[in-house]
Design goal:
By secondary structure, the chain is α+β, with helices and mostly antiparallel strands. It folds into three domains: about 110 residues, Beta-Lactamase, CATH 3.30.450.20; about 120 residues, PAS domain (Beta-Lactamase, 2-Layer Sandwich), CATH 3.30.450.20; about 200 residues, Alpha-Beta Plaits. Helices cover about 40% and strands about 30% of the residues. Strand 8 and strand 9 form a beta hairpin. Helix 13 runs antiparallel to helix 14. The chain is elongated, with a radius of gyration of 48 Å. It binds flavin mononucleotide. Flavin mononucleotide binds next to strand 6, helix 9, strand 8, strand 9 and strand 10.
């Protein structure tokens, strides 16, 4: 090969490389087609646009990729590429099938065939073609119509306010808004929606709305609004901002729901719940009520030391023969209510009443160290309280109190008519202290005495026989020690 021939071959190679570089740089779909009906060369935009690999595109006649509806017309255009009357490019649009089965609109400029080759440039104009098409316009109209129908059918109020105008007036309200508020569109368009507010409208909710509007943010509030006829309703209002393509706030859309019925039901439910809560707390200590609400089954807890009190109204049975039953029960109710108040005052748990007896305990359900002291103070106050009732009834009855300190198991058992109760030997002994006591006196065991002897005054009763326990030394609690005597 002579040198001039080598040079021209090198030139040719470098020109072809430059052309290839342009070919791949183009944002358009470029191709070279041969007159056998196949693609010969394609740039990579084909792959990114249609999803096929270039090998796949080259393996089939290009007509296979054309939308069936566009084939006849495409062939017409193709015929023109063979007529070499002018070098003007042939221009048309047709749809090419993507690998995922969808189609894209390509806008073509095709050269005529020369030396068996035709050159093509195509642009993906799917969006433009679709948006400009009659089908798109029809679909759009259908869509808008459907949206209007949905907004009309909505049972919540839908409003639009123009955020670009002073004081953000309403520019649209749907029919439900009229149903909820009683205002027709003609009456409200052009006004700010605050006309629904009134004297009792919750101001923090309005402040929240104002802050959201200022920040261009979403916000949901529940506030009291007033209908055209002046009647109030609870409005669950959500406002949401609408921004344009340049991120400028243009509108707010508001959704109004009349939730008055729900608020009424919730209020009634809350009142009922409070009532039943109060009732529950009347029969159970609060921590136990809480535990019981959360778990089912027995709730029993061991306490190492609590102080138990039994008080019996002695002489009540004869009283019952003198008084009509209703009056008698009313009287008993007054006494026990006074004891209940004392239990509360001393932080003592009332356990139950058994006929004309009253039972209480200190040191549970929350453990506390001063349980014996609290019970002793309660017992002395009970004696004091009973003197008022004695005055009413001419001292025809007295109170006999027994106290013991020891371990118990406390809790709720059963599933019906349950109460918080105590079990254990210490409970039986406390009951014995009462039944083996003397009217008008408070009998305590040594266990209780040992805890109280420094602060309270006692008289030793001595040993008494206690059923099931043998001999037990007991004491009479007679009063509180004065500070002076405690120091001496
Ligand atoms: C789209 C939209 C709907 C609104 N709908 C109600 C409504 O139903 N009831 C209401 O009390 N306030 C509604 N508001 C709030 C008031 O129009 C007003 O923004 C709010 O009272 C706080 O502003 P102000 O302090 O200027 O009154 C709506 C606001 C917007 C933007």
């Amino acid at each position: 090969m002579n040198s001039s021939c080598e040079e021209s071959e090198q030139n040719l190679a470098s020109r072809s490389a430059s052309l290839q570089a342009f070919f791949n740089l183009s944002p358009d779909l470029l191709c070279i087609r041969s007159n056998d009906g196949y693609f010969q060369e394609l740039n990579s935009v084909w792959k990114t646009t249609l999803g096929w690999t270039l090998e796949e595109l080259r393996s089939y006649p290009w007509l296979e990729f054309v939308h069936p509806d566009d084939i006849a017309f495409t062939l017409d255009m193709e015929r023109q590429c063979y007529i070499k009357v002018s070098h003007t490019p042939i221009q048309f649009k047709n749809r090419y099938r993507c690998r995922d089965g969808s189609y894209r609109w390509l806008s073509w400029r095709l050269s005529t065939y020369e030396n068996g080759l035709s050159y093509g440039i195509a642009q993906d104009v799917t969006e433009n073609s679709w948006r400009g098409s009659e089908a798109y316009r029809t679909e759009l109209q259908e869509m808008v119509k459907l949206r209007d129908q949905a907004i009309d059918a909505s049972s919540v109020g839908i409003t639009i306010a123009d955020a670009r105008l002073p004081d953000m007036p309403l520019i649209y309200v749907n029919p439900a808004f009229e149903v909820i508020t009683g205002y027709s569109p003609a009456e409200v368009l052009g006004s700010n929606c605050r006309f629904l507010q009134g004297e009792k409208t919750h101001q923090p909710a309005v402040t929240e709305l104002r802050a959201a509007i200022k920040a261009g943010e979403n916000c949901t509030v529940t506030l009291l609004n007033y209908r055209k006829d002046g009647t109030p309703f609870w409005n669950e209002l959500t406002i949401s901002p609408i921004y344009d393509d340049d991120n400028r706030l243009t509108h707010f859309v508001g959704i109004q729901a009349d939730i008055s019925a729900r608020v009424r039901a919730e209020t009634a439910l809350r009142i009922e719940k409070n009532k039943s809560e109060k009732l529950l707390l009347n029969i159970l200590p609060q921590p136990i009520a809480e535990q019981l609400k959360q778990s089912e089954g027995s709730l029993a807890q061991q306490f190492d030391a609590v102080t138990i009190l039994f008080a019996d109204i002695v002489g009540f049975t004869p009283l019952s023969t003198q008084m009509p039953p209703l009056e008698l029960i009313n009287f008993l109710n007054q006494i026990f209510s006074a004891f209940d108040q004392l239990a509360q005052k001393h932080g003592v748990e009332k356990i139950k009443t058994i006929g004309d007896a009253y039972m209480a305990a200190g040191g549970l359900p929350i453990m506390q160290d001063n349980h014996a002291e609290a019970i002793a103070n309660m017992a002395l106050d009970m004696q004091q309280a009973i003197t008022h009732f004695q005055a009413q009834q001419g001292e025809s009855f007295q109170i006999r109190i027994g106290i013991n300190t020891g371990p118990v198991v406390a809790g709720v058992i059963g599933i019906k008519k349950f109460i918080y109760d105590l079990w254990g030997d210490a409970v039986n002994v406390a009951s014995r202290m009462e039944s083996l006591g003397v009217p008008g006196k408070i009998q305590v065991t040594t266990a209780t005495y040992e805890r109280l002897k420094d602060k309270f005054a006692f008289e030793k009763r001595g040993a008494i026989p206690v059923k099931g326990k043998g001999e037990m030394t007991t004491y009479w609690l007679v009063g509180r020690k004065s500070i002076d005597s405690m120091n001496s």
